[in-house]
Design a protein that fits this description.
With 137 residues, this protein is an all-alpha fold. It has eight helices and no strands.
């Protein structure tokens, strides 16, 4: 994987992930695991990236939109949260594209036999890196 691993490592090393985990954000290990799992189980990587993206979006949504996150009886979808954040200027255009791409790709990863090769997932890792970078900044 190489360069993406190094970029993820550098980004991840900047933050106090213990405090982030207290806010139901992914752990440092969760983020690092994405690149490590790629060769072993690409479909799981897609699902894991989507879960991490959703936690990042939930955190930003709660901070920027305010109030508690929707309850199960009043759900706001990940797509809707991304749209609201974009409309409020919280998400740059390219990050918006990456968030939606990873959201949709993660849905594929949850279904058996939809991912045939590591290469199908590897092309999404740079998008994931950009989302991690956006969140970390």
């Amino acid at each position: 994987m190489g360069n993406e691993d190094e970029i993820i490592d550098k980004i991840v090393d900047k933050y106090d992930w213990g405090k982030l985990v207290e806010n139901d954000l992914p752990s440092r290990e969760d983020v690092l695991l994405v690149s490590r799992l790629l060769e072993i189980d690409p479909a799981t990587v897609l699902t894991k990236m989507r879960i991490i993206v959703e936690k990042f979006v939930n955190f930003v949504f709660q901070k920027q939109v305010g109030g508690p996150l929707p309850t199960p009886d009043k759900q706001v979808s990940l797509a809707e949260k991304i749209k609201i954040l974009k409309e409020r200027g919280e998400v740059p255009d390219l990050v918006n594209l990456h968030l939606n791409t990873l959201r949709l790709a993660g849905n594929l990863g949850a279904h058996p036999n939809t991912i045939e090769s590591e290469g199908q997932v590897r092309v999404l890792v740079p998008a994931f890196v950009e989302v991690v970078r956006w969140f970390a900044e």
